[in-house]
Design brief:
Blueprint (H helix, E strand, L loop, with lengths): L4 H4 L2 H9 L5 E3 L2 H16 L6 H12 L5 E3 L5 H4 L6 H16 L2 H6 L6 H18 L24 H5 L5 H12 L1 H10 L2 H10 L7 H11 L4 H16 L15 E5 L16 H9 L5 E4 L8 E8 L7 H19 L3 E7 L7 E2 L7 H6 L8 H18 L3 E9 L6 H10 E8 L16 E5 L1 H5 L1 H12 L13 H9 L3
Parallel strand pairs: 5-6, 5-8, 8-9, 9-10
Antiparallel strand pairs: 1-2, 3-4, 6-7
Helix pairs in contact: 3-4, 3-8, 4-8, 6-10, 8-13, 12-14, 14-16, 14-21, 18-19
Length: about 500
């Protein structure tokens, strides 16, 4: 529907809406354009100020399949830009740039990954940040477009009026700056890490919301070393994602009779109880002496919360850091699929704040971008962890399980490990240095542990196979309620 007159006279609305006259990518659904409004708003929060038309075009090319877009001018530029020297040629250059981005391998693959809005905002910030910083003309309006899809429907007839409602010097200067940096922008588009985008597409959005998630995602795209963790995760995650969510346990009676009980419903009453006279039967009922048939039923399992601790000290750089973070990500995802609660924490000489998985989504950006540069102090870290778990256990009825990914030389005082075991179960994956061996005095206190030697870490195929073997024991239950990794401890310890 046309934009109401009172909104058309508002520069905060007419400004961004009118800039769409410069757009050359028209979505087939107004809801797609509504996503562009949110991207525009989030980019301004990150300090990247560009016209809505530019954010709209580039964002839709990265986030939507080309079949959902129509490339072409949305207005007659000869008339619309009659007062702007070289305006028609500028828009021809802009359209050529958009068509080149649309034809790139990055746009083709990224549009099929179902990226979250936060991830699209981060990609746009990476592409447009430097261009926006070079635009010297100040905007003539402050965008304040409401998130209303109705405002974006059938805009064609009113776009010229909205475009002329405010000064467009800034819009034209931003488009000119983008065209002048066309080679730079296209290079950035081709350089986007598609493997990282694929990983985020597989795992969904980040657990954090808003600016915090975007900062983490920017950190991931700015760290070349994160690509090793991404590639390793992509090698092992398919086996995890094949797992099915554990079915919920029912509390209603099921199957046949299993025995006799003092509690039950009247339909399960043992018929011989009716042979008592009325007074005696009432006495037996009052004293819970009446017998009922007891049915078989599935017991509800107590939920568990899993604390995944990742060593971020200097001794974990390189292949060990890649293995630890990739394994932490895959095991956390497997636990989430099994219906468990997961918390991620890093440590070096201090224990960092926990980041919980929310809504079934992991803080992937945080896990990939975190940097630890504070030395190493296991006694302090695990002493703090023991106190934290002790307090948590008094407030939370859930069973606590700690998963530790660390170097083989993690010397924790034995009494500290014993204190942790009072509140939680503890499993660990130790990574050996070249020619090293595992020699820790608290191994017998662990519920499970695995040892990964340096030769395995150096080979991509062997590393992935070892990760799948370890993941096979994460979160599994053995008869009697014991964790399956306990039986794997002796197997792991016998490895060379």
């Amino acid at each position: 529907m046309p934009v109401p007159d009172e909104l058309a006279r508002d520069p905060a609305v007419a400004g961004p809406l009118g800039s769409l006259a410069l757009s050359v990518a028209a979505p087939r659904a107004s809801t797609l354009a509504l996503r562009a409004v949110r991207w525009h708003r989030e980019l301004r929060r990150l300090g990247v100020n560009m016209p809505l038309s530019v954010v709209h075009d580039l964002g839709l090319l990265l986030a939507c399949p080309n079949e959902q877009l129509e490339l072409g001018a949305r207005a007659h530029y000869d008339t619309l830009l009659a007062d702007a020297p070289g305006g028609a040629q500028l828009m021809a250059d802009y359209r050529k740039l958009i068509e080149e981005v649309a034809g790139s391998e990055t746009a083709r693959r990224s549009s099929s990954l179902s990226m979250s809005d936060d991830l699209v905002v981060v990609l746009l910030a990476r592409l447009l940040g430097s261009v926006a910083a070079r635009v010297q003309v100040a905007p003539s309006y402050l965008p304040g477009l409401p998130l209303d899809a109705a405002l974006l429907e059938r805009l064609g007839p009113v776009l010229p009026a909205l475009f002329n409602a405010v000064s467009r010097r800034w819009d034209m200067a931003a488009v000119r700056g983008l065209c002048n940096a066309a080679l730079y922008v296209l290079t950035l588009v081709d350089a986007l890490d598609l493997d990282t985008l694929q990983l985020f597409g597989m795992l969904g959005g980040d657990a954090a919301e808003g600016a915090l998630a975007q900062v983490d995602l920017l950190g991931v795209l700015g760290q070349p070393e994160a690509n090793d963790v991404v590639n390793f995760s992509l090698d092992i995650l398919p086996s995890v994602l094949e797992a099915k969510t554990r079915p919920g346990a029912g509390t209603h009676p099921a199957f046949g009779y299993a025995g006799l009980a003092r509690k039950g419903s009247i339909d399960s009453l043992v018929l011989s109880e009716l042979a008592w006279d009325a007074d005696e039967l009432m006495r037996r009922l009052a004293n819970d002496e009446v017998l009922y048939y007891a049915r078989e039923q599935t017991r509800d399992e107590a939920r568990r919360v899993h604390h995944v601790l990742i060593d971020a000290s200097a001794s974990m750089r390189g292949d060990r850091a890649t293995f630890a973070r990739g394994m932490a990500l895959a095991s956390a995802k497997k636990l989430l699929l099994a219906g468990e609660d997961v918390v991620l924490r890093f440590f070096d000489s201090r224990l960092y704040e926990p980041r919980a998985a929310r809504g079934g989504q992991l803080p992937v950006g945080y896990l990939l971008s975190f940097k630890g540069e504070r030395g190493r102090n296991p006694a302090r870290v695990f002493g703090e962890l023991a106190r934290f778990l002790e307090v948590t256990a008094t407030r939370d009825a859930r069973q606590i399980v700690v998963h530790l990914y660390t170097h083989a030389a993690l010397y924790i005082p034995r009494e500290t490990v014993s204190a942790i075991r009072q509140s939680a179960r503890l499993a660990a994956v130790f990574m050996l240095p070249s020619g090293g061996e595992l020699s820790l005095d608290y191994l017998d206190l662990l519920d499970a542990y695995w040892v990964v030697d340096h030769q395995v870490l150096a080979s991509r195929g062997a590393r992935a196979d070892e990760a799948r073997r370890i993941l096979g024991g994460v979160g599994e239950k053995a008869p009697g309620g014991e964790d399956a990794p306990r039986s794997a401890r002796s197997v792991a310890a016998e490895r060379p």
